[in-house]
Design a protein that fits this description.
The structure is a single chain. This protein is mainly alpha-helical. The protein has helices at about 5-25, 30-55, 60-65, 70-90, 100-125, 130-150, 160-175. The protein has one domain (about 5-70, about 90-160). Helices cover about 80% and strands about 0% of the residues. Helix 1 (about 5-25) runs antiparallel to helix 5 and helix 4 packs antiparallel against helix 5. The chain is globular. The two termini are about 25 Å apart.
Length: about 180
């Protein structure tokens, strides 16, 4: 696989992280720089880490995990989406939507499952993994940041509707994974 193809693969793999970050950008009005950097860091690092794991576990993954990847992503995104929708109806002085370590970890894993599979593909094509993994990190970090900030541009819309929309987007991503 050429580096041009790997670059386009990096862009394609980063789309889920961009969409999820857009959803978070819709919902978060406080500590935007910190939250954007945290979300982009988690999604970027996992987008680079997962293909490395897939690369080295190619045989095991094909046999035991791959058949369930869609279900795993579905469950994580539906959980996060329902949480967004539930929190849209809670009082605003209640805890804001989750962006704690647990949620960031779940988002990062869910958005990088495809990258895990890409690592398997890179292994089967005979590519090395270090440069593609670094490219995946950089591209995902940038796209995640852009998604978050673009979503933030719509923050003046009614908050409840945006939070529900963000939850629905996450659930649709989960359904897409099936």
């Amino acid at each position: 696989m050429s580096y041009t193809e790997i670059f386009f693969l990096a862009i394609a793999l980063s789309i889920d992280a961009c969409i999820v970050s857009f959803s978070y950008g819709l919902a978060y009005n406080e500590k935007r720089l910190q939250n954007s950097a945290l979300l982009a860091s988690f999604t970027g690092i996992f987008q680079g880490l997962m293909p490395v794991i897939g690369y080295y576990l190619t045989g095991f993954v094909k046999t035991y995990i791959q058949p369930y990847a869609g279900i795993i992503v579905f469950l994580i995104f539906v959980y996060l989406g329902l949480r967004f929708i539930k929190e849209a109806f809670e009082k605003k002085d209640a805890k804001q939507l989750c962006i704690d370590i647990k949620c960031l970890f779940l988002v990062a894993v869910a958005t990088s499952i495809d990258a895990f599979s890409a690592g398997i593909s890179l292994s089967l094509f005979g590519n090395k993994i270090l440069k593609p993994a670094l490219l995946f990190i950089i591209v995902t970090y940038v796209n995640s940041s852009l998604g978050f900030w673009f979503g933030g541009r719509l923050k003046n819309f009614p908050t409840r509707g945006l939070e529900i929309t963000a939850g629905i987007l996450l659930i649709l991503l989960g359904i897409k994974a099936l």
